[in-house]
Amino acid sequence: MGKHHTDSKDRMQEAFLELYAQKPLSSITVKEIASMACVNRSTFYLYYNDIYALYEDVEKTLIDNILPNIDIFLGFLDHQNDLTPLIQEINFYHENYYYVKPFLLSDTNFSRKIKDAIKNKIFSQLNLEKNKTNDYICEYVTSAHFGIISYYLCGENEISIAEVVNLLSDIFLNGPYKMLFK
Asked: How confident is the prediction for the chain on average, in pLDDT?
């Protein structure tokens, strides 16, 4: 019985993601989700009070899936000559682009939550002292890093994954101003 409930919840989340990729949150109905997920409306309400509760659950799941990629990025910090961690990170976003893009385009709070999660990981894994200076530096790094990934995902993918990886690496290692004036 437990697995059936998990399957129903997974199908509802998948249905939500399909619909959210096509239209705004305010236009998605419980009836549509239930129909696409092959569940009754009562099953929907067993798990969620409304569409917004489902949205928050899907958003949390998505962020939880993104967090391991922060570890990958931090691996790049330890081995700056090895671009493999950055390639893995960008590949994750690229492979999950269909699901991540609607959140990036429509919800600035989503980006804030991701950046905060990245900052917290940086502070804890690098054992940084919590102070204003380090907080501002981490905000700059996370905003720039995630900003480039968001820009790449939400654009027309005018450049390849390899070019995004090289750009991130160069900016991170050399700083943006050196990159602009080279």
From this structure: 84
pLDDT tens-digit profile of 11-55? 999 999 999 988 989 999 999 999 999 999 999 999 999 999 999
Please, are residues 150 and 119 in contact by the beta-carbon 8 Å criterion?
no
Average of per-residue pLDDT across 105-129: 82
Q: Any residues with CB less than 8 A from the CB of 157 and at least 6 apart, and which?
A: none
- CA gap 90, 149 in Å, rounded: 7
Which phi and psi (to 5°) does residue 176 adopt? -65, -35
What does the chain come to in residues? 182
Q: Check residue 48 and report its DSSP letter.
A: -
Number of H helices, E strands in the chain: 10, 0
Query: Which DSSP helix (H) or strand (E) runs through 22?
Result: none
C-alpha 24 chain-centroid distance: 18
**Domains defined along the chain, listed by start:** 1-48 (1.10.10.60), 55-180 (1.10.357)
- Helix/strand/coil for 30: helix
Record the pTM: 0.76
**Residue in this structure with the two tokens 């998505």, named with its chain if needed:** 62
| Identity of the amino acid at 30 | V
CA Rg value for the chain: 19
